[in-house]
Amino acid sequence: MKRRHTLVLPHRIAVQLRQHLFPGDGLEAAALLLCASTGRRRNKLLGREIVPVPHDACVRKHDFLTWPGEYVETAVDRAALCGDVIIAVHSHPGGLFAFARAADESDRVLMGALRHGTDRVAGSAIMIPDGAIRARIYHSDHAPTPVDLVMEVGPDLRSWWNDGASAAGPLRPPMAFTSAMRAWLGLMSACVVGVSGTGSIVAEQLARLGIGEIILIDFDKLEERNLNRILNSGVADIGIDKVEMFARAIRRYRPDCGIVQLTGSVATREAILAACEADFLFSCVDTAEGRHIADRMSAFFAMPLFDVGVAIPTEPTSAGGRRIAEVYGRVDYVYPGGSSLLDRGVYDAALLEAEYLARTAPCAHAQKVADGYLRGVSEEAPGVIALNMRAASACVIEFLARVFPFREFPNEARARAIFMLAEGDEDTFAEGQLANGDRFPIACGASEPLLGLPALGQRRRVA
Question: Which of 247, 292, 245, 234 is CA-nearest to residue 265?
Fold first, then answer.
């Protein structure tokens, strides 16, 4: 999967930008977008702040725009604080999805001012009335490089590719569940954190659906007790890293799929900096710490997050035994600026503390088993693959519905879904029904300390 530049706009930023650029008068308008720059293998620009150019400060026509340089100075001053890249955005009310010759000429002057003597890149972009964006980046040679993909991350996951676009408009997403959908997914990257009971099933579906790259992160090795619920695993695989086992399996049927594998905790700099290069993040972990890291990554790196979990609580019977109280599966979709997993109570500070104490206590493993799939029953190898399949499939369907909308209701109405197999019911929750504490900064990228956590800060060498 070859891609040089991606521009990602959190939904909140995209809405602000669209509202300013299209005030309803049919005339062009302008704004300056400040972006955090991140990524080692491919560059991602994360839109985090807008400097609007006031309409009354511009000369505005339906196909022409000039604006004063003082707003460039404001943007440069703000960008310097965080090392941001600046992208000048203007609207095309008539719907032209291409850069006009006048824009080419003005960029030659404007890009030098935006870079302001630094070695950073700068860019320009156009937006048409439906919100579609086309962008390009200028390096030191002053030759524009197209931004391969622009994404808006919100209730829907909107994507605009440079390849396939024309002056008439962007390439539209194909119909869900078609071979054209597979080709579209072949251009994109997904990170799966946790390659075990639900994670192996999520990763298997993504690979067979045609995703172009999968980043696999898991700290564990395969054990005999895992064989009844981790796809593609066999007796010969016992003792090897889960990510290595699964990477080998994918290569057998998808040799064209790019695979990045990392054995280690997601709560490390190496794992976070690898995961953040994906377009989509899937959290398939069973710890509060893992979900906390995924939660922060969704905000800091403007990543859409799909979190899946299952549980089978048990309760005592009058005869002294135990019975199943319920069989749960849960899928949460989180986008930057929306409600977080922490807001939704998927984990909390007390649970994070309890996990830390369990890891440092001698009985941590016994506690992990006791708190496993069947709560209250010690089971090393529970027969839960059917439940895992149901939950993992619901997670991937949720992903497809966001990228290739097919529902007869808005995706925003299904931010969370919980199914209960014993009761035979399913509850869904709209984004507006969930608390939103704005707990994490949005689109800050790899600013230090990483994810705002001092423990993940860059270690400095002592002379």
Answer: 292
